[in-house]
Amino acid sequence: MKIKVLFVCLGNICRSPMAEGVFANAVRQRGLEKMIDCDSAGTAGYHIGSDPDKRTLQVLKENGLTTKHKGRKLENGDLLTFDYLIVMDQNNYKHVEEMIQKKPGKASLFLFREFDSTCEDKKPVPEVPDPYYGTMNDFKLVFEQCERSSEGLLEFIINKHSL
Length: 163
Ligand code: 4NP
Hints:
Blueprint: E1 3-9, H1 15-29, E2 36-42, H2 54-62, H3 76-81, E3 84-87, H4 90-102, E4 108-111, H5 136-160
Parallel strand pairs: 1-2, 1-3, 3-4
Helix pairs in contact: 1-5, 2-5
The protein binds 4-nitrophenyl phosphate.
4-nitrophenyl phosphate is lined by residues 9-15, 46, 130, 132.
């Protein structure tokens, strides 16, 4: 059985598709595609079926990455299917925590930046801030946070599952 990781933000067009693209690349670079799958979803349904935000696609492209993801809303079934739910901010965390309390599944819940090496020992754990109303620089910052957090998350999964 593959280890399944779901990245979650609010709209599923800016941060979580970026996280998915960056993490999938880190998994490929380690040759672990047969062991680990990832996807992304939003706690809100504003952008179901939409492509990621142009700025997310641009930052991914500037870094040689791409994604074919279409926006989707987080469902109760995801709590049963996924091993890891990786959220971007505290609002996402509360939303998913409430879903888990109502319908427990197998998924473990983490803030993505718990795995960012520049955030060690910081409490509360820093967020990946919502860039939707921001600038390209905010999207570039999100990319850098996703890169560091992906490395840390992948190390965690490799150790946890003895890959
Ligand atoms: P995301 O950003 O949660 O990183 O995808 C947002 C995208 C859209 C909206 C809010 C945040 N929105 O309000 O439509």
